[in-house]
Automatic annotation (TrEMBL):
Keywords assigned: ATP-binding, Ligase, Magnesium, Metal-binding, Nucleotide-binding
Record InterPro entries: FTHF_cligase, FTHF_cligase-like_sf, NagB/RpiA_transferase-like
GO molecular function: 5-formyltetrahydrofolate cyclo-ligase activity; ATP binding; metal ion binding
Family recorded in the similarity comment: Belongs to the 5-formyltetrahydrofolate cyclo-ligase family.
Annotated organism of origin: Blautia segnis
BP-aspect Gene Ontology terms: folic acid-containing compound biosynthetic process; tetrahydrofolate interconversion
Annotated protein name in UniProt: 5-formyltetrahydrofolate cyclo-ligase
Cofactor(s) listed in the protein's UniProt record: Mg(2+)
Keyword field contains tRNA-binding: no
The EC number(s) this enzyme carries: 6.3.3.2
Residues binding substrate, per UniProt: E55
Length: 193
C-alpha cells in the first residue's frame, strides 16, 4: 500500500534525525508513563520487543518489570511467525531478523495472559497502527486475542490519520513521552497525564 510506504519513509527519516541522547531521554519519560498504567501494574507477565534503530527503547520498561518481579519475554522471528522467549538477562539477545535483537537461547513461552508492549511505525489518535509490513504482530495477536496491547511511540509517530486494513489489530493503549491514548474513549480520545 503506497500510503503506508510513504508513512514508513517519513517516520524512518524523522527517527534518523533524533540523537541517541534524545531517544534515550524520551524513552525514559515514556517508561515512567508505562509503569504507572494500571495494566502494567496488574500484569504478572510482560511481552516486549527488543528495540532497534531508534525505536522507543524497551530496556527501561523491561528492567522495571524485572524489578517488580514480573516475567518478561521477547520475540524471535521464526518463518512467518513470532515466538516469544523468556528473557532473564539482556546477554541472551543478539542481532537476528533484519539485525533486530532476538533471543539466542532460553525457554519459549506461550502466555495467554500477558501485557504486550508493541512497536509500530506510526499511529493515529484512534489507535490505528502502521507496522513494519511483515504482519508478525497481527498474526500473533489473532492467535492470542486476550493479550492486552500497549504500543509505545514518540510524539512525532502520532499522525492525524493512518491507513487501516481489516486484518490490523490495534493496540488498546498508545503511550508517548507526553500523552496516553486509549481506544475505549470517544473519538480522538486523549488522556493528557
Amino acid at each position: 500500500m503506497e500510503e503506508k510506504r510513504l508513512i514508513r519513509k517519513q517516520i524512518f527519516a524523522a527517527r534518523k534525525q533524533c540523537a541517541d541522547e534524545q531517544v534515550e531521554e524520551w524513552s525514559r519519560q515514556l517508561t515512567e508513563r508505562v509503569i504507572r498504567l494500571p495494566e502494567f501494574l496488574q500484569a504478572d507477565r510482560v511481552m516486549a520487543y527488543a528495540d532497534y534503530n531508534h525505536e522507543v527503547m524497551t530496556r527501561f520498561i523491561i528492567e522495571e518489570a524485572w524489578k517488580s518481579g514480573k516475567e518478561v519475554a521477547v520475540p524471535k522471528v521464526v518463518g512467518k511467525d513470532m515466538v516469544f522467549y523468556r528473557l532473564t538477562d539482556f546477554s541472551q539477545l543478539a542481532p537476528g531478523y533484519f539485525g533486530i535483537p532476538e533471543p539466542t537461547e532460553g525457554e519459549t513461552v506461550d502466555w495467554t495472559d500477558a501485557l504486550m508492549i508493541m512497536p509500530g511505525v506510526a499511529f493515529d489518535r484512534e489507535n490505528h497502527r502502521v507496522g513494519y509490513g511483515g504482519g508478525f504482530y497481527d498474526r500473533f495477536l489473532e492467535k492470542h486475542p486476550d493479550t492486552q496491547r500497549v504500543a509505545v511511540a514518540f510524539d512525532f509517530q502520532i499522525l492525524d490519520q493512518v491507513p487501516t486494513e481489516p486484518t490490523d489489530i490495534c493496540p488498546q493503549i498508545i503511550v508517548t513521552q507526553s500523552n496516553i491514548y486509549r481506544n475505549a474513549l470517544p473519538k480522538g480520545g486523549l488522556i493528557n497525564e
